[in-house]
Amino acid sequence: MTTLQALVLGLVQGLTEFIPVSSTAHLRLVPHFLGWDDPGAAFSAVIQLGSLLAVFTYFAADIWKLLLAALASLRHRNLNYNSDARLAWSIAVGTLPIAVLGLAFKDFIEGDARQLTIIAIALIALALLLLLAERLGRRTRLMQELGVGEIQFIGLCQALALIPGCSRSGSTIMGGLFLGLKREEAARFSFLLGLPAIGAAGALEFVKLLKGGLGEAGLLNLGVGIVAAALSSYLAIGFLLRFLQRHGTHWFAYYRILLGIFILYSLS
Questions:
Q1: Is-above-0.85 flag for pTM?
Q2: Which of 29, 187, 227, 230 has an alpha carbon 20 to 30 Å from 8's alpha carbon atom?
């Protein structure tokens, strides 16, 4: 991989990680149509650390508030100490489905699941579910109003992102909409819920790459990809939150359907 390729892929990762169009799909498609080698699941996971940094920066106040509430709940020996504490611990538990399933199907996810046919079908299938959630969701609730069971439901939805093309943000936003969250609230919760999953996956793959022997050039390219992902992710977060205040997720769903059809057509 060249430094230019790492820069392009980092920008692609950041721009598509939080917009519900699937960053994994685009990180697979861009190299395919440009004639580059597939960067692989490990590189894709590691440059997500840039997106993680963007979330920590953008939502620093929210994250700090949840952390303090979680610590207060431990001090009072009551995990249900207040709504913020309940939300913080629910996010932690809501990460279990994607962690367990990710480890159980790791080989398939990093191998056969990256086939373009599977990606195309996943793009279309989740787009249809997203449109259904837009139609059925009441869009009146705040994320602090979610119960523990409801957060676990969104956690299960997040696990769909293990299938390349589904989109972690798309899956969790879809789950939030089904439960009646406002669109921008569903997006904000999606960002927060993704912190443990993105951080753990990125850290594990980074250690694996280091053990495999990256070399100076490999480290440089990873650094370029992470920085590019961080900057573009920060811009994408702001764009999505502003967009959802006025519009629905329909346009992203239509884009997913068209992209899926294009991929299937190109393969035929």
A1: yes
A2: 187
